[in-house]
Amino acid sequence: MQPAQRVALVAFPGIRAFDVAVITEVWGTDRTDRGVPRFTLRRHGADRAPVAMPGGLTLTPDQDLEALRGFGASDLVVVPGVDEHLAPVPEPVLAALRSVHGAGVPVAALCGGAFVLAQAGLLDGRRAVTHWNLTGLLARSHPGVQVVPDALFVEDGGVWTAAGVAAGIDLCLHLVRTAHGAEAAATIARSMVTAPFRTGTQAQFVDQPTPCSDREADALAAVRERALRHLSEPLTVADLAGWAGMSPRSFARHFTATTGTTPVQWLLDQRIAAAQKLLERTGLPMPEVARRCGFGSEVTMRQHFAARLATSPRDYRRAFRSAGA
Fold first, then answer.
1. Which residues form the HTH araC/xylS-type domain (predicted)?
2. What is the greatest pairwise CA distance in the chain?
3. Three-state DSSP state, 176
4. Residues 175, 196: contact at Cβ < 8 Å?
């Protein structure tokens, strides 16, 4: 039996209850009966005393920070967001984060948790993201950080950061997907009644003065649904625009405004996701997987896997194919 992935939640006064709930829902719920790997989630605090969170809630740690820094204690460390973004974080917390990252353990922060990692010095010279309404504050208060204004989440040097609120769910599911495959992440997402992954950037959620009309949004949703049923075909932007009754130029503009990504990029994301599922669930030959997902050839599929996932389809199947497939 494969050992459980050990995930550590870092708890200190002021962390957001929503982010704690997300981390707990993803890694603290047993879904082994549905084929999801086992996880061990531990909550580490300065001591075992209850940690106050906004809204009158508390979280009681089950481990101290010294246990977090123990050799081989964790496979992943996750920091919830905070509401007081410029408030000093207790030095023992910052020292523990520096220690685990120095030991090679991936560290992830949700939403305003990027400010915590910045205080620890883990974002100096690195790319990072936070809620779209806080990117300017992060850049001003920590000028050494290379703030990415519109990504849902980014990774740099083993340090992960996520944009606001729901993007924390996106990052947590992505970390599961990276470690255990798309099917495990999709199973968790289904139980949370959320999408396994979202395409685009957080630019789609910034206040817009002239949003698309409901009629246009419905037309674009219908086009995306139809495209998913025809992924094996060599779809073009002109094809999708024709389904929506728009010119290619107008369609691309409205599509990007609605989803935060281009039609071409969205199609590629869907093709890769479909290929991941087939590689995990079936023993289909590589050329057939490429054909069913619309890549046209195994070579093209391999190139896109290398660019997007930093692996090959064969290596991906070897790592994540279900034993019962």
1. 221-319
2. 61
3. helix
4. no
Helix (H, G, I), strand (E, B) or coil at 198: coil
Distances, alpha carbon 152 to alpha carbons 76, 110, 145, in Å: 19, 10, 17
Burial (CB count within 10 angstroms: exposed 0-12, middle 13-18, buried 19+), residue 125: exposed
* Tokens encoding 35: 């084929």
The whole-angstrom separation of Cα 136 and Cα 131 is: 10
Q: Rounded to whole angstroms, how far apart are CA atoms 128 and 116?
A: 12
Reported for 176-182, long-range contacts at CB under 8 A and 24+ positions apart, including other chains, are 176/26, 176/27, 179/5, 179/75, 179/76, 180/5, 180/36, 180/37, 180/320, 181/276, 181/280, 181/319, 181/320, 182/273, 182/276, 182/277, 182/280, 182/320
Residue 171 to residue 153: CA distance in whole angstroms: 6
What is the number of other CB atoms lying within 10 angstroms of the CB of residue 245?
A: 10
Residues 6+ apart with CB under 8 A from 180: 5, 36, 37, 320
Token pair in block for residue 220 = 């674009």
* 158-183 pLDDT per residue, tens: 999 999 888 999 999 999 998 998 88
Q: Where are the beta strands (DSSP E) in 151-221?
A: 153-156, 159-162
pLDDT tens per residue, range 265-299: 999 999 999 999 999 989 999 999 999 999 999 99
Cα separation, 192 vs 178, whole angstroms: 19
Strands 107-109 and 127-128: unpaired
**Nearest 5 degrees, angle CA 301-CA 305-CA 309?**
165
